[in-house]
Amino acid sequence: MSSKYIYTVLMFVALNALAQTNSLQLRGIPLRTHFDSEDYRAGMQSWDFSQSEDGLLYVANNSGLLEFDGNRWKKYDIPDATKIRTVMIDSKGVVYVGGQNQIGFFINTGSGFQFKTLRDELDSAGINISEIWKIFEYEGKIYFNAEDKLITYSTDGIEEINSPGFLINSFMVDERLICQFYGLGLFELQNGKYLPLPNTESLARLVAIYKNDQAYIFISEFGDVYEYYSSGIDLKTNLLDSVTINDVLKLKNGDYAIGTQNKGLLILDSEFSIKLHLTKNKGITDRTVKAVYQDNFNNLWVALNNGIDYLKISLPFNLINEELGIEGTGYDARYFDESIYLGTNNGLFLQKDINVFSDENTFELMPGSEGQVYKISQIDNELFLNHHKGAFMIGGKSLEKIHDIGSWTFEKTSQPNLILGGDYKGIKYFEKKNDTWVPTGDVLGLTESSRILVFENDTILWMSHGYRGVYRLELDKNMQLKDEIKHFNKRHGFPSNILISAYKLDGKMIFTSEQGIYNFNPKSLEFSKNTFFEELLGDEHVSNIKSNGHNSIYYIQDAGFGVIKEEKYGKFSKETSLFKHINKYISDDLQNISVFDQNNILITAKDGFIHFDPSKKHDIKKDFSTVIRSVKASKIEDSTFVNIPVNTKELVIDKNQSIKIEYASPYYDGFEDLNYSYRLKPLDEKWSKWSSLNEKSYDHLPFGDYTFEVKALNIYGMESKVSEFSFEVLTPWYATWTGRIVYISILLIIIVMIPILQRRKYKAETSIITEQKKKELKIKDEQIDKLYSEKLQTELNLKNDQLTSITMQLVKNKEFIQSVQDKLSSTLDKGGSAQELKRIINSIDQELSDEDYWDKFAYHFDQVHGNYLEKLSGMDIKLSPREIKLAAFLRMNMSSKEIAKLLNITTRGVELARYRLRKKLKLEREQNLVEYLIELDNT
C-alpha cells in the first residue's frame, strides 16, 4: 500500500468526518495514583499544597510538612503544632508554613530542612493566634491569614494589621490582596489599609475569587457564583444544593476544580457547566476533598479526608470501568443513536441519563445480555449484538434474539435485505422479514468458526480464522458461492498459520500476521509484506488496526498502543511514547479499537475500556530535572551514614569512607516509570545502564577529585537535565608536598648515613669476627685441655687399676703363703721331718719378709697419687717405714684386715698402728685419719 494512496483515502474520508456533528461527551475517570497515610507515614488529612522551583511537592498535613520528590515521601515535624494547615513557597524559595498555634519557615540546609519558628516574635509583639489557614507573598512581605486577622512578616519584624472586623477569608487576585470580613463585605488591602469594595456586604462566606476578562468571579461556600462589576454584583448560577465547598482552583485551561465536603470533586468549564464529577469509588478515593492543587505538569493533587489522590487530568486518557458500572473486560464499543453501548465478557452496558451528582453508576447492564459479548455490529441504522449465546437485535434498551448459535459478527452485503453472519459453525445468511432478521441458510463449503468477515468489494469476502489462516470467498450478486473457497496460510507467503486477520483499512485490504502486515496479490494468489507498514511497524504482531477516517491510523501491537500520523508532504510517522501510560491497562484477549469520531477512541481494557481523546494535546517534550536528594558518608566498616549537605561545594572524604548519593526526578507525569543513569567522572567514561534504582554508593575510591552526574529517563523516552555533585577523596599525607619533602629529607639522610653505617657495620662485624675467633680458640683450648685431662685421667685410672691389682695380688700371695706356713707348722707338730720342714718354713718366712713387693707397690702408688710416699717421707714429722706403708694402705681405703695381712700383723696390731699414726700426725679427736690422708694427696 503506497503512502500516496493512504494520503488520498484519508483526505477523502476526512471530508465526510468534518460534516459529522460531535455531540458525543464521554465522561470517564482520570488515571490516578492514590497515596494513603501508610505511604507517606503521616496523618490521614492534608490541607494545602505547594511546589518548589525544582519540582518538589510540599504538603501541609496533620502530622507535619510532607515533601515528595517523585520517588519517596519525607516528613518534617514542627514543634508544638499538632497540625499544619497551609504551606507557601515564596519567590526566594523559602517554605512558609502555618498551623495550630504555630507559624514559621523552613531553612534548607542542603541535607534537609530546619524549622525556624516565629512563635517568639508573636509573643514579643503580643499577638495571639489559634489557626493559620492561608499564606501569601504580597509587596515583599509574607501575610498569614489567621483565624480572625492578618499578620504580616518581613525583615522589619512581625505585626498584626488592624482590621475593621472579624476576618473570615482572604484572597490573592490579580496581584491584589482582598479580604472578607464578617458582615462587612470585601476589602482590598493597600499600603497597610483596608479599602471596602462596594455592594459586597451581603455576600455569604466566599471560598474563591477569580478575575475574568470582564468581571470578578465570586464563589461562595454554598455553591453560589457571582459576577462582580464596578457597577454592581449579579448571581450567575448556583452549582448545586446541599453542598459545602472546601476549595476552588482555577485550572490553567480555564476550567475550575471544586473540592466539596460531601460530593467529591467537580470539574467545571469556564462557564461553570459541569464537565466531570468524581466522588468516592467513582474516580477518587473519598467523597471529602480538602484541597486541590495543579502541579507544573497540569495534573491535580487532591487532598482527601483520608489520603491523597493524584489525578492525571492532563493526559488525553480516562478509564471507563467498574467505578462507572462497567463490569468485566472490554470487547467492543459502539456509539449509536446518541447512545454509548459497551460490550464486555459480562454483558452489554448502556450509558444512563442520570444527574451528574448522582452516586449511581453511569452505565447499566441491559437485561438479557448477561455473558460474553464479542461484537456490536451496525448495519445501516440497525444495531446487532454478537454474543456467546447467539445473535440479537438491539432496540434501544431491549434485545431481540434472532439466532441461537454463538455469534461473532455481521457484515452488510450488496443486497438490501440480506446480511452475512459469522458464528461458531461458519457463515449464515440472514434475511429481513417483517422488520426482523432471520437465518435462512449457510454458506456451503465452510464450517469453520468465522470470527472475522470483511468484504473486499461487493463479491469478494474474506474470512480469517485464528489459527488456520484466511479464506477467500468469491460470490455472485446474490451472495452465492461463485467458485470454490480458497484457503491461504503459510504456504502462500505468511510466516505462519496463526494470528492472521483481515482488515479493510480505508478501502484497501490488509492482512495482519504473526510477524507483520501483508498484501494479497490476486494474480499470483500469494501474500507479500506491506512495505508501508513494515517500515513503520516492523515485524511485530499487530492485533488490531483502525483508521479514524481523517489522518490517523490506530493500532495495537505487541509493544502496546500506537498511532500512525500524517505529517507534511505526505509523510507518515508513528507515535507510541504517549500511550505508555495505558499499555498496562490494555486487554490481551481479542483486542479491539473502536473509533467513535476523531476525538473519541475506545480501546478494550482488562477492566472496561480506555477512552482516548486525540484533541487533548499533551506536551511530552517538557523539560525536567533530576535532583540530588541527599549525600551520605560513613566509614566502610560502619553501616551508619551521616548526612552531608548537597549544596556543599567542597566535600572531602578519606579513602576509608563510603559515599552514598540518593537522587530523584520530580517528574510526576509518570513517576512510576522513571529510570536513571549515572557516571562518576573521571572514573567512568560511559553512562551506566538505565535503572529504576535511585541511589548509588562508592567504596575504596582512589584519592582525587570526582564529579557524580545523574540524569533521568521519563516514560516518553526523554532525558532530563544532568544534575551533578562534586567531592574529593582526600589525598593521603604521604602523597602531599609535605610527604614528598619528608621523603626527600629521609633520602638525603640515608645517603649521608649509608657510609657511616657501613663503617660502623664493618667495625661491628670485625669485632664480632674477632670475638668469635677468640671464643673458637678458647673452645678449642678447653677441648684440648679436656682431652688431655681425660687422657691423664684414663692413664691414672689404668695405673690405679694396676696398683689395686698388684696390691690385691700381694694380699692373696701373703694369704696363700701364710696358709702354707700354717699347714707346714701343723705337719711338723705331728712328727714330720723336722729338719726338712724347718728349712721350708724358713724359706717361706724369707718370702713373707721380702721387701721386694713393696718397691713395686711404691712405684705404682706414686704414679697414681703423684709421689704421695715422698710427701709422707718429706713431712716434718718423721714417719717410720711401717707407718708410711700404713698411711699408703689407708689412702687406698683398704680394710684393717687387708692391711694386717700386708703388714704381717694382726688386726689389733693394725688398730694400734693407726692410733700411733694419728697421734704422731697430731690429729684432733674429731678428725678422720683417712680423710686427712686423702686431703694430703690433694696438696
Automatic annotation (TrEMBL):
<protein>
    <recommendedName>
        <fullName>HTH luxR-type domain-containing protein</fullName>
    </recommendedName>
</protein>
<dbReference type="InterPro" id="IPR000792">
    <property type="entry name" value="Tscrpt_reg_LuxR_C"/>
</dbReference>
<feature type="signal peptide">
    <location>
        <begin position="1"/>
        <end position="19"/>
    </location>
</feature>
<feature type="transmembrane region" description="Helical">
    <location>
        <begin position="737"/>
        <end position="757"/>
    </location>
</feature>
<keyword id="KW-0472">Membrane</keyword>
<dbReference type="GO" id="GO:0006355">
    <property type="term" value="P:regulation of DNA-templated transcription"/>
</dbReference>
<dbReference type="InterPro" id="IPR015943">
    <property type="entry name" value="WD40/YVTN_repeat-like_dom_sf"/>
</dbReference>
<dbReference type="GO" id="GO:0003677">
    <property type="term" value="F:DNA binding"/>
</dbReference>
<dbReference type="InterPro" id="IPR016032">
    <property type="entry name" value="Sig_transdc_resp-reg_C-effctor"/>
</dbReference>
<dbReference type="Pfam" id="PF07495">
    <property type="entry name" value="Y_Y_Y"/>
</dbReference>
<dbReference type="Pfam" id="PF00196">
    <property type="entry name" value="GerE"/>
</dbReference>
<keyword id="KW-1133">Transmembrane helix</keyword>
<keyword id="KW-0812">Transmembrane</keyword>
<dbReference type="InterPro" id="IPR036388">
    <property type="entry name" value="WH-like_DNA-bd_sf"/>
</dbReference>
<feature type="domain" description="HTH luxR-type">
    <location>
        <begin position="872"/>
        <end position="937"/>
    </location>
</feature>
<dbReference type="InterPro" id="IPR011123">
    <property type="entry name" value="Y_Y_Y"/>
</dbReference>
<dbReference type="InterPro" id="IPR013783">
    <property type="entry name" value="Ig-like_fold"/>
</dbReference>
<keyword id="KW-0732">Signal</keyword>
